[in-house]
Amino acid sequence: MLQMYENSTEAIFFFSSEGKTISMNPAAENIMDVYALEQLKKGAENALCNVCRGYTSESDLTTCRDCYFTSSNHGNFSSFQVFLETVGKGLVPYSATFHVIDDEKGTRVFILRDLSIQFETQTKLQQNTMMKNIIKAQENERKRISRELHDSVAQELLSAVVDLRALKYMTDDKEVLKKTGESTATLIRLMDDIRNLSVELRPSALDDFGLEAAFRSHFKRVEESYGLTIDFRSTVKRARYENEVETVLYRICQEAVLNAIKYAQVETVQVHLLEDGNTLQLIVKDEGIGFIPGENPIGSGLGLYGMNERAELVLGNVTINSEIGKGTTVHLRVPLDENREVAK
Questions:
Q1: For residue 58, how far is the Cα from the chain centroid?
Q2: Chain centre distance of CA 292
Q3: How far is CA 192 from CA 65, 98, 162, 180, 200, in A?
């Protein structure tokens, strides 16, 4: 029993009925600064207050009201959360118990278990959940605007084009016909711009037909707009994947190809979509000018940061390998399981 007390990773304190420290194990001593430790060993009044920053009650995240150490109702403090200022780690959340173990003498035990790792995990989960909801909301809004542009604005422009074309049958005035012809051409260009913007916001092919169709459509537009050749290969076995997985792969590929267009100074980019075991992979490779890993490439580097953020939302990871003069490879890996597969 003594060995367990000495070797325990939990901080254990014993206090008398008067609040004086009777004993504490090494784990308890290691979290206290020199002054707090001296005060505790001397049995100074309110010595624990030197390091305690409050506990979590039913109404407050941190409070000192009805303090667990001085409260007469010890039964309410068999399990609670407390915050202590510690050596090395700063303010640390602990799961605590504080109760009487000897009714006759009034001896009380105070046991602390470090919750830092659990808090970090919870914080990461909350951040990921929030980011996931934000990106989902963004994609839904993109989809809404895309459909509005395609179904409403573009259709209204088409109606205007039809009306202008009808004018040539209603007049022989060459100046009017010339002006209507110019206006018709302008509206047609505007319609093309709106359709392209609609697709960039959210390609309907991604929702209707899946990744491979969306990639081919996107690469065709890239080749037409920038004169860049996309060497695309797909060896995936499934027609569809879970919606979030498809969205993440499409956006990361879109960003990687755009970076190659902006910075790589190449005429060809290779894109490979494949499954390896239970992992869906995307590889975007160029043989351009490259950059030094660990340093931002030309530009802000925010695109690379965004790739990692998106990948984490589907438990994936992005690795970016680059070498000056030899090009850059963006490699995305996303784990798959049956629960995330969408029926074909």
A1: 31
A2: 25
A3: 67, 71, 15, 18, 12
What confidence tens digit (pLDDT) does each residue in 238-257 have? 889 998 899 999 999 999 99
CA 135, CA 309: separation in Å to the nearest integer?
10
Task: Describe the crossing of helices 116-148 and 174-201 by its angle, rounded to 10 degrees.
Answer: 160
Residue ranges in the chain modelled with pLDDT below 50: 75, 299-300, 338-339, 341-344
Asked if residue 318 lies in contact with residue 214, where contact means CB atoms within 8 angstroms, the answer is no
Question: Is 107 in a helix, a strand, or coil?
Answer: strand
Query: What single-letter DSSP state applies at residue 149?
Result: I
To the nearest 10°, the Cα dihedral for 201, 206, 211, 215?
-50
The one-letter amino acid at 292: I
pLDDT of residue 294: 65
Structure tokens that stand for 314 in this block: 């589907």
Rg value, the chain, Cα: 32
Burial of 305 (0-12, 13-18, 19+ CB in 10 A): exposed
Task: Say which DSSP state 75 is in.
Answer: G
Cα 297 to Cα 191: distance, rounded to the nearest angstrom: 35
Average pLDDT, the chain: 86
With beta carbons less than 8 A apart as the criterion, state whether 251 and 304 touch. Answer: no
Could you give the angle at the alpha carbon of 11 between the alpha carbons of 10 and 12, nearest 5°? 110
Question: In the numeric block, which tokens belong to residue 75?
Answer: 């039964």
pTM to 2 decimal places: 0.63
Alpha-carbon span 291 to 297, nearest angstrom: 6
Compute the distance between CA of residue 317 and CA of residue 334 in angstroms, rounded to an integer: 7
The encoded tokens of residue 273 equal 């979509």
